[in-house]
Specification:
Chain C: Belongs to the binding-protein-dependent transport system permease family. OppBC subfamily. The complex is a heterotrimer of chains A (299), B (545) and C (311). Chain B has 545 residues and is an alpha+beta fold. Helix content of chain B is 33%, strand content 23%. In chain B, a hairpin with a 5-residue loop joins β15 and β16. Classes of the chains: A mainly alpha (299), B alpha+beta (545), C mainly alpha (311). The A-B interface holds A 63-65, 67, 70, 84-86, 157-158, 240, 244-246, 256, 258-263 and B 256-258, 261, 277-278, 281, 325, 328, 331-333, 400, 403-404, 406-408, 410-411, 422-426.
């Protein structure tokens, strides 16, 4: 549950001057040249495919109850066993991919859009606006993200959508700060000044100078954020404040499986492995991306 | 070079971890064989030691008048005692703190003689006056008594003509009143001197007359009680007439049931209230004993809001009753250890009518569909019932404890063409919404010791309270009023038989099952018994050192 | 320097002020009427009105807020709806347990993080490096609650090495602290590794090597000391992170800290308690951050500039 802010702060504190980063066509090639990044990307691609084709791939309907096969260990009929009310674990895991994917997209969407917007505004306009917005961000940052998420869920009530919202909102401040920091370094590098002096419009500067220059940071941290979003949403579901039954969400499955640790090891094991594998790949990919975009921090 | 070296250490680590696992497997084997030689039949109680009981909930306060929590009533019950008591064998009302009692002919006046020589933990002697003050405190609105006040709601006046005599006048005769006086938790005498001395802190420093004295409450963790050395007024059904055998009794609060089981295994707790599936695993375990008993109440039933425009239709309610394969639900939820319920009362409560087994609404999908069709519903292309372009769809409001049956019921409804969505909300909110009638279908369970529970659940005056179905049936109302004021048992039985029939025929509810209560006990603790009216009977138990 | 510290404290005061507004608004944002929950379902509307008035919930927001603040200043955080005790008492009783867990977790994070980092740097680009950094990534990828369950199953249930729900002593804290430590060690091991690698490629280390100095001596005497500064900072930052992480871990291990208190409060809709916890945690967080910032600016004066430029 590392927050973005924490992940970022040490680098900020060391204040490594960043060269403007450019995303070029050969970036993908470069990423692919990292062996582990390649594997991770392939794995994540596979996961997406599984999610998209879940109805075809899953052996059964994830909510179908097999009354005569309660708590069955893995077998030929049910490759990963069944749960206490006779649902096929494999089918639920496969459908769970869809939930995990939508969590990533949804939470990321909120954080990304709001965070980038606030961050860029602050860096670009500066002054009072910057001050006010950043203080609000500070206030939100001053709460552990999970406490903030809990508070948001307390307001909105427990549901998967609200959990995603909470996780998304809770990460906005860290993200905004990050974008602002990156943008500030670029701003102070002089050539934005130069383009302003030749009379370029504000939006032109934003679009053509800021955005491309922060893309590298953006890509790296959004990738890492996906991992955080998946974990935090699963954690909320685990304590009963996220996805509600019969949704086949991995965190909920884990939480249900936890009640059967003694008689059905497979119930908590497979969702746990699934979460770990996906988040691990995402994080590994994020690290590789950081090496690509920010070679300075690479050892 | 380095890599080679590394590979070796990898190997070493793997071997090490593997051997740890093997070691673990061996050592647990050893443990189970060692216990076989244990002498289980030793029967002379030993004094001393500690019994630790696990509970999922932590009390809000130990002031029995201010709490509404089950766990608080259990713990305060150990520190207190009641005027009368339930004999666990015969289920008869027996004297306890009262030496004797008489009920006047009109059933409105109860005269109790308080036993002499009883003192509170703080040294205050127990007199009739103290009991009167206790009741007055409950009835005083400023106390804010929630549950305790309900139990003595029918009281007109309480008086104490002398130290030993307590006279209770009721507004109308009440059959369940005497068994309420057997509640050790809610209706125990309280020392007003202690309450005055402690003020707002009384709930954390309770003082009673029971076998256990309050010692310490570690927030979020445990409550510790020590034995009352002066205690010698235990209930007549206990063999132990003196102070308790163990020195300490600890309640430990563990939210998660699996953690609780793990704590039982590791020896951190001795007694655990467990689910059927866990109890089953321990039946053949030599280190543990499983105590079980039929629970006094309905373990699960589906309540329907009959003010809903679709659920108003009796056919729909009956169809819902018939859609439920109770055996299957019992198999999945209770590991097969429960009985299908057909009426609103369980066999363990007085007044239960065995005929309900024959006239109850049984599982029958075909008839369920026929009933729906006779009310004008018909299946559409997706297999869901439809009438005048409206689909047959309900929302099931439940809390997280009933996630499993909710999903099974959802699937069963679908089979007869009813679309059910599940909305899980927090228990407190659930009660509030359901009481207000802001729901369509919900789950509930209850435990109670008297058929008067039907009054609380179905009488029209209880709408807004626990009459969640919002039943307004004049005939039923009359029966339920009659039932609570009739003292003569045979007549009372007949009244409740009729009431049960109406409730089943009107299908206000879909009763699902009655269940058992399980306690897994470490065999270190001996002599523990379980009864459905009194719960755990601790006073004869002792710890093998 | 002085200016920096004053600025930092001033901005923190503003932040704490903001948190107080946020937590004050919570009670108004949460659905359901707190008064109705307090008096129970069967209460008459008169009772509800009376209590609403008593609690001041019928007055304008601004008036309510000023009351809220003046109460706070007097140390009155309100009363828990469930237990009827002062919210501050509830929190203060639980907080030391969370601190205990978080500091034990920190200790493990440091031990795991630094040893992994040093090992990885020492054998840079070897299998050990990949392995250590892989473990580090795994640490932030594995759901902490799942890791906790796994550890309980292996070490408490199967091996019976550590007790469960026994109390909060040293033996009890080990498993939850390891769980927390694994998650918290990632940043430390990465920074240690990267810092070490950087230093090890410096001229003076190369010189030392050329002089034929023992490799272990180089690692410990020269390189390790130089990476301590960034690592110490991360440790400071991680304290706050660990406090948050403890919230979930506490659930798994039945640890009687702020986390279990918070989740219990949310589930039973104990508004004043939720409010109090949010506020309290916010203040703790801000305080830790100030201390870390100030400490760090003392250790490494370059930071002052960059932080100043930031705010």
């Amino acid at each position: 549950m590392t927050k973005l802010s924490e992940a970022y702060k040490p680098i900020q504190a060391r204040s490594i001057p960043k060269a403007p980063l450019n995303v070029k066509f050969d970036t993908l090639k470069k990423i692919m040249s990292y062996k582990r990044a390649k594997y991770c990307l392939a794995f994540l691609f596979l996961i997406v495919i599984i999610g998209v084709f879940a109805p075809i791939l899953a052996p059964y309907n994830p909510n179908k109850l097999f009354y005569d096969a309660l708590l069955q260990p893995p077998s030929k009929e049910h490759l990963l066993g069944t749960d206490a009310i006779g649902r096929d674990t494999l089918s639920r895991l496969i459908y769970g991919v869809r939930v995990t994917l939508s969590v990533s997209v949804f939470a990321l969407g909120i954080t990304f859009v709001a965070g980038t917007f606030i961050g860029l505004i602050c860096a670009y306009i500066g002054g009072v606006v910057d001050n006010i917005l950043m203080r609000i961000m500070d206030i939100l940052l001053a709460l552990p993200s999970i406490i903030l998420a809990l508070a948001i869920v307390a307001i909105l009530g427990p549901s998967l959508t609200n959990a995603m919202l909470a996780v998304g909102i809770a990460s906005i401040p860290g993200f905004a700060r990050l974008i602002r920091g990156a943008a500030l370094t670029i701003k102070s590098s002089g050539y934005v000044e130069a383009s302003r002096s030749i009379g370029s419009s504000h939006s032109w500067i934003l679009r053509r100078q800021f955005l491309p220059n922060v893309t590298g940071v953006l890509i790296v941290y959004t990738t890492l954020f996906i991992g955080v979003a998946i974990l935090d949403t699963a954690a909320l579901s685990f304590i009963g404040l996220g996805a509600q039954p019969p949704t086949s969400e991995w965190g909920t499955m884990l939480s249900e499986g936890k009640d059967y640790l003694y008689e059905a090891w497979w119930l908590a094991t497979f969702p746990g492995l699934a979460i770990t594998a996906v988040v691990f790949s995402v994080n590994f990919l994020g690290d590789a991306l950081r090496d690509v975009f920010d070679p300075k921090s690479k050892g | 070079m380095v890599v080679k070296h590394l590979k070796k250490s990898y190997l070493l680590i793997t071997v090490f971890i593997l051997s740890m696992f093997i070691l673990a497997a061996c050592s647990s084997d050893k443990e189970s064989t060692k216990d076989q030689g244990d002498d289980l039949n030793q029967s002379t109680p030993q004094s001393g030691g500690t019994i630790t009981i696990a509970a999922t909930e932590e009390p809000d306060t130990l002031d029995p008048h201010k709490t509404g929590m089950n766990v608080a009533s259990r713990i305060t019950g150990l520190m207190g005692a009641s005027l009368l008591t339930n004999d666990p064998e015969t289920n008869e009302i027996k004297p306890f703190l009262a030496d004797s009692y008489t009920v006047s002919k009109d059933g409105k006046t109860i005269t109790l003689k308080i036993r002499q020589g009883i003192v509170f933990h703080d040294g205050t002697p127990l007199t009739a006056k103290v009991y009167k003050e206790t009741f007055d405190r409950i009835l005083n609105p400023e106390t804010g008594a929630k549950v305790a006040a309900n139990f003595i709601a029918g009281i007109k006046t309480v008086s104490a003509p002398d130290d030993q005599t307590l006279v209770i006048e009721l507004v109308v005769p009440s059959a369940p009143f005497l068994s309420n006086l057997a509640l050790e938790g809610y209706l125990q005498p309280l020392s007003l001197t202690a309450i005055e001395k402690q003020g707002d802190d009384y709930g954390r420093n309770p003082v009673g007359v029971g076998p256990w004295k309050f010692k310490e409450w570690v927030n979020g963790q445990s409550i510790t009680l020590v034995r009352n050395e002066e205690y010698k007024w235990s209930q007549s059904f206990y063999e132990n007439k003196e102070k308790a055998y163990p020195e300490k009794l600890v309640y430990k609060f563990i939210k998660d049931t699996q953690t609780m089981i793990a704590a039982l295994d590791s020896g951190s707790v001795d007694i655990v209230n467990a689910a059927a599936k866990d109890a089953q695993r321990y039946r053949n375990n030599k280190k543990f004993e499983v105590l079980e008993i039929d629970s006094q109440g309905i373990g699960l039933f589906l309540e329907m809001n009959i003010e809903n425009k679709i659920l108003k239709d009796k056919n729909v309610r009956k169809a819902i009753n018939m859609a439920l394969n109770k055996e299957t639900i019992i198999k999945a939820v209770l590991n097969g250890e429960g009985k299908p319920a057909n009426g609103p009362l369980p066999p363990t409560i007085f007044g239960y009518d065995p005929n309900v087994e024959s006239y109850g609404n049984k599982y029958n999908q075909e008839n369920a569909i026929k009933l729906l069709e006779s009310s004008g519903w018909s299946k559409n292309s997706t297999g869901i019932m439809e009438k005048d372009g409206e689909v047959l769809r309900f929302e099931l409001l439940t809390d997280s404890t009933h996630k499993q049956p909710a999903q099974i019921v959802q699937a069963m409804f679908k089979e007869i063409g009813i679309d059910l969505s599940i909305q899980t909300i927090e228990a407190g909110t659930l009660m509030e919404k359901v009481s207000k009638g802001e729901y369509e279908i919900s789950f509930l369970k209850y435990t109670y010791n008297d058929p008067d529970v039907l009054y609380i659940l179905f009488h029209s005056s209880q709408i807004g309270g626990l009459n969640h179905a919002r039943v307004q049936n004049a005939k039923l109302d009359a029966l339920l009023e009659q039932g609570r004021t009739t003292i003569e048992t045979e007549e009372r039985k007949k009244i409740y038989a009729e009431a049960q029939k109406i409730i089943v025929e009107e299908a206000y509810w879909a009763p699902i099952y009655t269940q058992k209560e399980y306690y897994i006990v470490n065999k270190r603790v001996r002599g523990l018994k379980l009864s459905n009216s009194n719960g755990l009977l601790i006073h004869d138990s002792w710890v093998k050192q | 320097m002085k200016q920096f510290i004053i600025n930092r404290i001033l901005s923190s005061v503003i932040v704490i002020f903001g948190i107080s507004i946020f937590s004050f608004l919570l009670i108004h944002l949460i659905p359901g009427d707190p008064v109705k929950i307090m008096v129970g379902i069967n209460a008459t509307s008169e009772q509800v009105e009376k209590l609403t008035h008593q609690m001041g919930l019928d007055r304008p927001l601004l008036v309510q807020y000023s009351h809220f603040i003046s109460n706070l200043i007097q140390g009155d955080f309100g009363t828990s709806l469930k237990t009827g005790r002062p919210v501050l008492t509830e929190i203060v009783e639980r907080f030391p347990e969370t601190i205990k867990l978080a500091s034990a977790g920190m200790l493990f994070a440091i031990i795991i993080g630094i040893s992994m980092g040093v090992l990885a740097a020492r054998y840079k680009d070897s299998l050990i490096d990949t392995f250590c950094m892989g473990i580090a990534t795994l640490g932030v990828s594995i759901p902490s609650f799942w890791l906790g369950i796994l550890l309980v199953m292996i070490f408490s249930v199967n091996l019976n090495w550590f007790p469960i729900a026994e109390g909060t002593g040293i033996r009890d804290v080990i498993l939850p602290a390891v769980t927390l430590g694994v998650v918290g060690s990632t940043m430390i091991s990465r920074l240690t590794r990267n810092g070490m690698v950087e230093v090890l490629s410096n001229d003076y280390v190369r010189t030392a090597r050329a002089k034929g100095l023992d490799e272990r001596l180089i690692v410990f005497r020269h390189a390790f000391r130089n990476v301590l500064i960034p690592v110490v900072t991360v440790i400071g930052l991680q304290i706050a992170g660990l406090l948050g992480g403890a919230v979930i871990i506490e659930q798994v291990f039945n640890w009687p800290g702020i986390g279990t208190l918070a989740i219990g409060a949310i589930l039973s809709r104990d508004f004043p308690l939720i409010q109090g916890i949010v506020l309290f945690m916010g203040v703790v967080y801000v305080t830790i951050n100030i201390l870390v910032d100030i400490l760090y600016s003392i250790i490494d004066p370059r930071v002052e500039l960059s932080v100043k430029e930031e705010s």
